[in-house]
Structure formats: C-alpha cells, structure tokens
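lol forgot to send this yesterday, sorry. struct tokens for the thing we talked abt
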C-alpha cells in the first residue's frame, strides 16, 4: 500500500473507506433526458450506457436498509448495476466485472453463511458471481463457480442451491461448501434446447422456455429429469410469465404470444397476440384500472412496449405505450412508484439504457389529493 493511501485510511472511518473502495457508485439522473411515453404514462431513464447493451433488467429488493425496491441491470461488459432511486433521482452501484457479458440473474437466500438474500449473476465466460449487499450500502462480489466455460443464460435461486442453465443446453446445480467460498457445481442434466428464461410457480416447479420452442415444467424434486411439455411450437421461445391463477404466457421469436392453461387432459394453448418478430420481454402485472380480466406487457426487437389486455368477453386488444431507441431485450415489473395504484415497468436492450415506465401520479387513487 502506498504511503499516501495509508495515511488517508488512518484518517477515514472504516465504514467510509469501505464505501469508497468496494463499490463504484455514481448518480445517473441529472444528465439524462426524459423520453416521451403514451398519454397517461411517464418515462424515466435510470441508467444510460450509450452503445453498451444491457441484457437483463429486474426489479428486486437488494438493500434492506432502503425502503422500496431497486432495479438490477446486467450489461454487455460483464458489470452488474444496482440502481437506487431517491426523490426521483437514480444512483448506480456497480459490482463485479467479468469482461464478458452477464445474462443470468437471480436473487435468493441460497448461502446460509451470508445474511439475507444474495444476488447471483452468470456470464458468457461460464463464471457465476455472488453479489452480497452490505449494511454500508455497498456490494461485495466474488466468483463462486466456473461452469466449464459454458455461457450462463438463466439462473434460478432455490432454498440452499442455485440452478444454472447454460448453452447449448445443460442444467447445473450449485451448492455452497461448508469450508470454501466457492460453490460445488455439477452438471446434472441436459435440456431440450438452450433455456432462455425460467419462472418458479406456486407449487415450486419451474416453467422453462427454450430455443427449441418448448415450454416445459419440471418438478422441484425432479429437476434433473425431463418434465411435462405444456407447449411446443416451431419457432424458438424466449420469455415466459405466470399469472396468479397459474396461466402461463410464452413469447416466441416470431412475434407470437401463447396463452397456456392446464386442462383436464393436459394443457390447452392459444395465440393471443401476433406482432413484430423478436419478442424478448413478457410480464404479468396491474397496469390499467379498472383492471381487465388479464393483462400483460410485451417488449422486443421492435423497440415498442405494448400492453396486452383481455376484456370480459374474452377478446384481446393491444396498445403501445413507449418506444425505446433500439431493439429491446428484457422487460421487468415491480413497485417503484407509490404515487399510483399500478405496477411499474423496467426495460433494457440494445439501446444501452434502463427505462422506467409508470402511470401518472394519482392514477387509481381517487380519494387522494394531488398537485
């Protein structure tokens, strides 16, 4: 350690020194222009990396010491961005630097040695990182496994273990070791194709969509065995969402959204949307009031964010609420603005930025005074 740095650390409290050295942190909002959205909606930019793609974006509760949730984004340079909002401004806490793109992202209490829940991110290099929030508002990051150089596209956090899906089509189980910071990592099964998205269902099973065009359900106790096929289509499937009632929605490469519901003799499926090719985002949520019978939000290579709603008579309608500056790659949903009674949307992709879409203040809050 250089003498100047040593003298500096002797004068600075330990917590402050950790803040200065452990995490790259910068305010992102003051210089970011506000893009246009459809009437009744507002758009904000939480992060702008210019030409650097941002491939995965989710709303997660990372810092327990802060009220509300954060936005977590993974970029093409192998960096994890935890975006914290305060009074309408966003601060970027950056952790890890793999040098290859990050794709897989999960959060859960996997490692009993760590307090609370950890973030896990997977890279094109095959490395899996654990990111742990600290009380000082910083992030610790370390590599916990190398999956034989296989690209890590999807991660799912379960109780006591992490499930990783790699290219071209394999599943790994990662479990903490008692005597090492590294995890035990074993390839336990092959998958029908490259699993591009997964969602955990109420019964603990996983719904998987893959490049080969299948929507597959695997039971929690039998993840290493082939599961039940809910849908098989000619085009690849890229994203999956599940409603509170157990209905599954799958987005395909050719621009079709499929609705899948369990029937007495298996699964029934129907096309509920046909649009531009390259769908890369689908989420369920509460976006419109009065609430339609079912409602989804879509995002993809067209750059448009589209609301898809089912009326009481069963018919479906769509409306565009925002257009990003380049192709979309991921869409997330969560609670980021309590000034309305609906969910917020976050998205990212080839445009190199994270946008946040929210209803206007007071929307759905008829009894609240407003200015």
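and heres what i got for the seq, position by position
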């Amino acid at each position: 350690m250089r003498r100047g740095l040593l003298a500096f650390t002797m004068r600075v409290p330990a917590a402050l020194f950790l803040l200065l050295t452990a995490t790259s942190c910068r305010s992102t909002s003051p210089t970011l222009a506000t893009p246009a959205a459809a009437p009744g909606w507002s758009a904000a930019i939480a992060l702008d990396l210019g030409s650097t793609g941002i491939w995965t974006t989710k709303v997660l509760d990372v810092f327990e010491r802060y009220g509300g949730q954060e936005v977590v984004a993974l970029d093409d340079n192998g960096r994890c961005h935890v975006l914290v909002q305060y009074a309408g401004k966003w601060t970027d806490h950056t952790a890890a630097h793999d040098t290859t793109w990050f794709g897989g992202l999960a959060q859960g209490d996997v490692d009993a040695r760590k307090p609370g829940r950890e973030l896990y991110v997977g890279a094109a290099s095959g490395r899996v990182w654990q990111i742990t929030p600290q009380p000082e508002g910083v992030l610790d990051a370390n590599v916990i496994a190398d999956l034989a150089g296989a690209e890590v596209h999807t991660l799912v956090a379960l109780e006591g273990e992490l499930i990783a899906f790699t290219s071209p089509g394999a599943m790994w189980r990662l479990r903490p070791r008692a005597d090492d910071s590294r995890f035990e990592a074993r390839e336990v099964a092959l998958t029908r194709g490259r699993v591009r998205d997964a969602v955990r269902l109420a019964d603990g099973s996983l719904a998987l969509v893959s490049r080969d065009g299948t929507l597959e359900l695997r039971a929690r106790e039998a993840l290493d065995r082939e599961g039940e096929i809910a849908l098989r289509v000619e085009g690849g499937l890229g994203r999956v969402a599940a409603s509170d009632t157990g209905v599954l929605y799958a987005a395909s490469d050719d621009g079709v959204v499929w609705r899948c519901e369990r029937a007495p003799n298996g699964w029934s499926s129907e096309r509920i949307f046909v649009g531009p090719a390259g769908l890369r985002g689908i989420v369920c949520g509460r976006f419109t009031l009065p609430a339609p019978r079912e409602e989804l939000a879509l995002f993809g290579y067209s750059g448009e964010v589209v609301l898809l709603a089912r009326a009481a008579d069963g018919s479906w309608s769509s409306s565009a609420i925002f257009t990003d500056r380049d192709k979309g790659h991921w869409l997330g949903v969560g609670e980021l603005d309590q000034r309305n009674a609906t969910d917020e949307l976050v998205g990212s992709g080839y445009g190199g930025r994270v946008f946040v879409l929210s209803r206007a203040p007071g929307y759905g809050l008829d009894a609240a005074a407003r200015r």
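The longest helix spans residues 3-11. anyway ping me if u want another try
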